Amino acid sequence: MALNARLDHRNPLVFDTHELGRRPGALQRLTRTVDAPKDFGIQGVIGVPEGAPVELELRLESVMEGVLVTGTARAQAEGECVRCLEPLELELEADFQEMFSYPDADDRGRVKAEPADDAEEDEDRLFLEDGLFDLEPVLRDAVVLALPMQPVCQDDCLGLCSECGARLTDDPDHHHDAVDIRWAALQGLAETMTDGEKDEMSGAEPGVDEKQEK
Questions:
Q1: How many C-beta atoms lie closer than 10 Å to residue 20's C-beta?
Q2: For 51-74, how does the pLDDT look when each residue is reduced to its tens digit (9 = 90+)?
Q3: CA-CA distance, 140 to 157, in Å (whole number)?
Q4: What is the 3-state secondary structure (H, E, C) of 141-208?
Q5: 97, 64 in Cβ contact below 8 A?
């Protein structure tokens, strides 16, 4: 990966490693609460609302080739049940670990005499910039992996009725009487017919029954 654009130390997701002094084995533990950035999660499915608090616990360890960052992020995610479409909330806990390499060191921690000719060598690597690193891309990946792709309000959610949209979990006995589609049209026609029309279709004259009774 190419070197980051100039990092801003005022960004709450940018961290300073100068205290480690580039001494292999040196450790630093940090806790920080930051505001969730925009689109923090699985877009359109579930995620942490922008500006919501995200609690970070970090362990920074200096190694030969850079700084190994291990941490946990905790926040409350919001989304919609994929079965009944009701809003839901869940406690998110995402673990992550990432190596941020010194720009002038190879994989064994040795100082490079000159830049590597093969750009693919650095494609998947993250680098320190003036002792700073940006945690946001690592954090985003960890949150996406920790969130469910198909969130549900409860494991046994029954979803919605396919005919009327009622929430079946609220009424497990909910059902609709089945109607034979072959007779449905005739039934509707019969309900709209007048008594005279029914008599004509049956072959009887209107009022015949009344005359016989007399």
A1: 18
A2: 999 999 999 999 999 999 999 999
A3: 29
A4: HHHHHHCCCCCCCCCCCCCECCCCCCECCCCCCCCCCCCCHHHHHHHHHHHHCCHHHHHHHHCCCCCH
A5: no
